[in-house]
Write a structure and sequence with these properties.
Blueprint lengths: L4 E6 L8 E8 L2 E8 L5 E11 L4 E10 L5 E9 L5 E9 L2 E9 L1
Antiparallel strand pairs: 1-8, 2-3, 3-6, 4-5, 4-7, 7-8
Length: about 110
C-alpha cells in the first residue's frame, strides 16, 4: 500500500522557522522528529501532539534554546499507525510570535 504524507505550515514568525516537524512514514509506523535549526539564536516553547488511527496518542512539550548554526533533534517519536491514518501538529512560540506545522498520512 502506498502511503500518503501531507505537511503544512502556517507561518507567522519568519520564512525560515527555527523549529520544524519532519515525518518519516514506514510500514505500520511513522517516525516524527522535531528539529531545531536556526541561523540566529532562538529561545521558545514547543508542543508536539500526535495521534493515529490505531488509538495511539502522544503529547510532548518543552522549552528550547537553539544556538545559531547548530542543528539538533529535540524530539524523536515513533508512532504506531497500524496501517491507519495518523496526524501530528507542532506549535512553536517565541519572542516574535507563534506558528504551527501539521503533518498527516495513511
Amino acid at each position: 500500500m502506498l502511503g500518503l504524507l501531507a505537511l503544512a505550515a502556517v507561518p507567522s514568525m519568519t520564512a525560515a522557522q527555527p523549529v520544524t516537524l519532519v515525518a518519516r512514514p514506514a510500514a505500520g509506523q511513522v517516525l516524527l522528529e522535531v528539529i531545531g535549526d536556526s541561523a540566529v539564536p532562538f529561545a521558545g516553547r514547543y508542543v508536539l501532539e500526535a495521534t493515529s488511527g490505531s488509538g495511539n496518542r502522544s503529547r510532548q512539550s518543552g522549552t528550547v534554546a537553539i544556538q545559531a548554526g547548530r542543528r539538533m533533534v529535540l524530539v524523536s517519536l515513533g508512532l504506531g499507525t497500524g496501517q491507519g491514518n495518523w496526524s501530528a501538529r507542532l506549535t512553536v512560540s517565541g519572542p516574535s510570535g507563534s506558528y504551527e506545522q501539521t503533518a498527516g498520512g495513511r
